[in-house]
Write a structure and sequence with these properties.
about 220 residues; mainly alpha; Four Helix Bundle (Hemerythrin (Met), subunit A); about 0% strand; globular
């Protein structure tokens, strides 16, 4: 049983957190390690990526992909809850908790990029910006201050935006309506653009707060 407590914890709505309480108890009872939950989130992300990749041929896969994005988020929350409840929290655990998230982000947006339902560059820019947002967030811990979670396009909101865009695209495709507004720009292109712009705002907000905390910390020392 570890006494380690994470120095920075992502704020999660209590209503969302409460959906995992039963599973936390089950994982602790069965001895399921938090790392396994972290790896399961990558499996869900890979499934979502595969669904997006093939969605131009089978539009219903967009709905399954959106569902898997939600499951990915749920696993991302569950792993930390299991680690704390079972006393498995550790510095190593923070690495295992963080790194799969980055693989998940890349997998999902690369799947979107190669879906044939948007420009390839749209998905790749969304992937790049997602990585930069996470990088800026963890810089605080790297320099000895708090991790930053501010901004409008944190991981849950990136997934929420993508899930909405995917569901809308699926409905339009299955109803045989146009998905390009205007000209060659699709719903998923607009979705990725919103994510990229939101990530830019998030990077600015987090970087400003980080620099302020570093300045205040240096002033105290």
């Amino acid at each position: 049983m570890s006494d380690y407590q994470p120095t920075s914890r992502r704020p999660i709505a209590q209503a969302f957190r409460s959906t995992a309480n039963w599973c936390v108890r089950l994982c602790v009872r069965l001895g399921i390690h938090a790392d396994c939950v972290s790896y399961a989130s990558v499996v869900a992300a890979a499934g979502a990526a595969a669904c997006f990749w093939r969605a131009s041929d089978y539009p219903y896969l967009l709905l399954i992909g959106a569902l898997l994005c939600g499951i990915r988020l749920w696993f991302n929350m569950l792993d930390g809850m299991v680690a704390l409840a079972s006393g498995q929290a550790s510095l190593r655990g923070e690495i295992v908790n963080e790194l799969p998230d980055r693989f998940s982000d890349v997998l999902i947006f690369v799947g979107v990029a190669h879906s044939g339902l948007c420009f390839v560059v749209s998905g790749y820019w969304a992937a790049i910006m997602a990585l930069l947002v996470a990088y800026i967030g963890t810089l605080g811990q790297a320099v000895g201050v708090q991790r930053q979670f501010g901004g409008v396009m944190s991981k849950p909101w990136r997934m929420a935006a993508l899930m909405l865009g995917a569901c809308l695209t699926s409905v339009l495709l299955m109803s045989e309506r146009e998905i390009r507004y205007p000209n060659l720009v699709t719903v998923l292109d607009w979705t990725c653009l919103v994510i990229v712009l939101g990530c830019l705002q998030t990077i600015v907000v987090r970087l400003a707060r980080l620099l302020r905390e570093v300045r205040d910390d240096e002033a105290i020392k």
